[in-house]
Write a structure and sequence with these properties.
The complex is a heterodimer. Chain A has eleven helices and 16 strands. Chain A is an alpha/beta fold. In chain A, helix 2 links the parallel strand 7 and strand 8. The two termini of chain A are about 35 Å apart. Chain B is built from eight helices and 15 strands. In chain B, strand 13 and strand 14 form a beta hairpin. In chain B, helix 5 packs parallel to helix 6. The chains are: A alpha/beta, B alpha/beta.
């Protein structure tokens, strides 16, 4: 009997918890050659802003151990083209679309949210609060609880009830839980954790910063422990709030780690650049991992790592007896 | 297509390496100008970015083989040079838009620089099949770094070889011999693959002569691309569209073959102010 992967993000039910992270699945067209978008748990779009945006000049990325640093500058077609061209395509493919909303002012976010209000193809909204705030010296909204709350409130006001709004937070803050609480108070139905971690690479040939944007966001398996910690910490403080966990997920076991930390869903990001067909594999591996642990429903695994020390779910015994390499351990016990 | 290809051979070709692998699904779909994106470092590697290489040739042996030529320029390509027969590689391809071929049997000038010359040979075959004349200009820093000089002399209707140090062919740069080659070949169309600077010069000279030019941006893609599949948006460059609007296009999915006269060569590494979605500096000035 294989495990049920059905999960919930507030009012929305997903057939499985594996999504593609914002900006990592492109518009969906290119990814569709490698993945059936309707079989993903969901597709998170690149951040949509009111106007078309060319983004930063090249070089936009540099390879680093276990990941990459990138500074893209939020390139995108703007809300008009997104609604005319990209959203209908995703709907046609049967993707459960989560639209990432960005902006450089609270008004930008509100504008995009207002335009999304009547779009039935929008399954949920993710607020990318890690955008630079033009009205605050370019500091990202995510760095201040009040600024993060302002954009979440602006988006939540415009989005229909029944369409959950998730706030995507940056880990580059001294107390993530404070920001998470502020977003929850402002009406966030859930949280996406985490955005990229600030990083930098210097080109030792040109003797200059490797990116045109000087510093950038570090992503990939290199940041996974930071992401798992963030999910665990926030889930401990806000256990009722659904979390989409992300940061370097490359395998089903990586995904399980986030689920155990408290995520109800996970998103695959930089791994898609390396392995464009990774999402389907991760779904399969996650299902196998749950089944092997005797966990019948994904929902039962959410936050399981928070159980008090000494609590051993019965199914863990079942697992250890089926694995031959545990045999010596039983002998030890016998002695 | 994402496939697990079995390595047949890795051999040194002058200063470059040529890797052949069995990948029938890629071989049968390939068209000249397209490329493959190769995962490097093995299953548990910390190097996540795919390396993109223009395909040199595909053959029907073993169900279908794909060969690409590359310069060893970073630890990822060094790992590739260490592959042995029967190793497997995770390869995505064929990717990108191919060279567009002329309908009529015209005269074509194929310009290659460094390892980029490799991308021109499958193109030459396709052009020959259409009854086109194929003339080559191949360049590089020295004899070891000009790919395919001998093959070009064998299969081309003419072949000009030029090296910076004069160790093979004439001494000089590709751009220097181009006007003469254009005149001699009476070229109706120019195709080029090689260093970005060479592509810029070829586009310039060809445009000056009013000859359409298609360039394959392999080197730009290698320097800027992370995925090769169009997902990551890191390999963008400013290109003028049919409507006259400059857009930031991806060298991978919108290229790697682009019309040379449409690429804003002097603005590479920038977002031109009038590009679609460029920062609104001008508008801010108008407002104030």
């Amino acid at each position: 009997m294989s495990a049920s992967l059905i999960t919930r993000l507030g009012p929305v039910e997903l057939p499985n918890p594996v999504l593609t992270a914002s900006g990592c699945g492109g518009t969906g067209r290119d990814l569709a050659q490698f993945a059936d978008l309707s079989r993903l748990g969901g597709f998170i779009t690149p951040s949509v802003l009111p106007q078309p945006r060319a983004g930063r000049p090249t070089p936009r990325m540099a390879e680093t151990p276990g990941g990459m640093v990138s500074a893209m500058g939020l390139p995108g077609p703007g809300i008009d083209t997104f609604l005319r061209r990209d959203l209908p395509f995703l709907a046609e493919q049967g993707a459960r679309t989560i639209v990432s909303v960005g902006g450089n002012s609270v008004a930008d976010y509100a504008e995009v949210a207002r335009r999304l209000r009547d779009e039935t193809a929008v399954c949920a909204v993710e607020v990318n609060v890690a955008c630079p705030n033009a009205e605050d010296r370019g500091l990202v909204f995510a760095s201040r609880p009040s600024a993060a709350a302002d954009v979440v409130r602006a988006v939540r006001t415009h989005i229909r009830p029944g369409v959950p709004v998730f706030a995507k937070l940056s880990p580059d803050v001294s107390d993530l839980v404070t920001i998470a609480l502020a977003c929850a108070d402002a009406g966030a139905d859930g949280l996406s954790l985490i955005n990229t971690v600030l990083g930098m690479a210097i080109d030792t040939t040109t003797l200059r910063p490797a990116l045109s944007g000087v510093s950038g966001g570090l992503s990939g398996p290199a940041i996974r422990p930071i992401a798992v910690r963030s999910v665990y910490q926030v889930h401990a403080a806000l256990p009722q709030l659904p979390i989409i966990g992300m940061g370097g997920i490359a395998t089903g076991l990586d995904a399980l780690e986030f689920i155990l930390a408290g995520a109800s869903a996970v998103a695959v990001g930089t791994t898609l650049f390396h392995d464009p067909s990774a999402a389907a594999r991760i779904v399969r591996e996650l299902e196998e991992a749950l089944t092997a642990r005797g966990i019948g429903r994904l929902a039962d695994a959410v936050g399981l790592a928070h159980r008090p020390y000494g609590f051993v779910p019965p199914q863990v015994h079942a697992l250890s007896t089926t694995e031959p390499n545990h045999e010596p351990k039983t002998e030890e016990r016998a002695q | 297509m994402q496939v697990s290809g079995t390595v047949l051979t890795v051999r040194e070709v002058g200063g470059y390496h040529a890797l052949t692998l069995v990948a029938p699904a890629i071989a049968e779909r390939f068209r000249p100008g397209q490329f493959v994106a190769v995962a490097v470092g093995g299953e548990h590697t910390g190097r996540l970015l795919r390396r993109c290489f223009a395909v040199y040739e595909v053959k029907s042996d073993y169900g279908g083989t794909v060969e690409f030529v590359f310069a060893d320029r970073d630890p990822g390509t060094a790992w590739l040079t260490g592959r042995r027969s029967r190793d497997t590689l995770d390869v995505v391809g064929p990717l990108g838009r191919p060279f567009r071929l002329p309908r009529d049997p015209v005269s074509c000038l194929l310009v290659g620089g460094g390892p980029g010359g490799a991308a021109l040979f499958s193109l030459a075959d396709a052009l020959h099949r259409r009854g086109c004349q194929v003339h080559f200009v191949l360049g590089g820093p020295d004899a070891a770094h000009v790919f395919g000089a001998r093959s070009a002399q064998r299969i081309g209707d003419s072949a000009t070889v030029v090296t910076t140090d004069g160790s093979v062919g004439s001494r000089g740069e590709v751009a220097g011999v181009l006007p003469q080659a254009l005149a001699d070949s009476r070229a109706d169309v120019v195709y080029a693959c090689g260093p970005t600077e060479t592509l810029r010069q070829v586009s310039q000279v060809s445009s000056d002569y009013g000859i359409p030019v298609q360039v394959c941006l392999e080197e730009f893609l290698q320097a800027n691309g992370a995925c090769g599949t169009g997902l990551c948006l890191t390999c963008v460059l400013p290109v003028i569209g049919d409507d006259g609007v400059t857009r930031m296009l991806r060298a991978c999915a919108d290229g790697p073959v682009l019309r040379g006269e449409r690429v804003r060569w002097s603005d590479l590494g920038t977002i031109p102010l009038e590009a679609l979605g460029a920062p609104r500096a001008l508008h801010v000035m108008e407002d104030s």
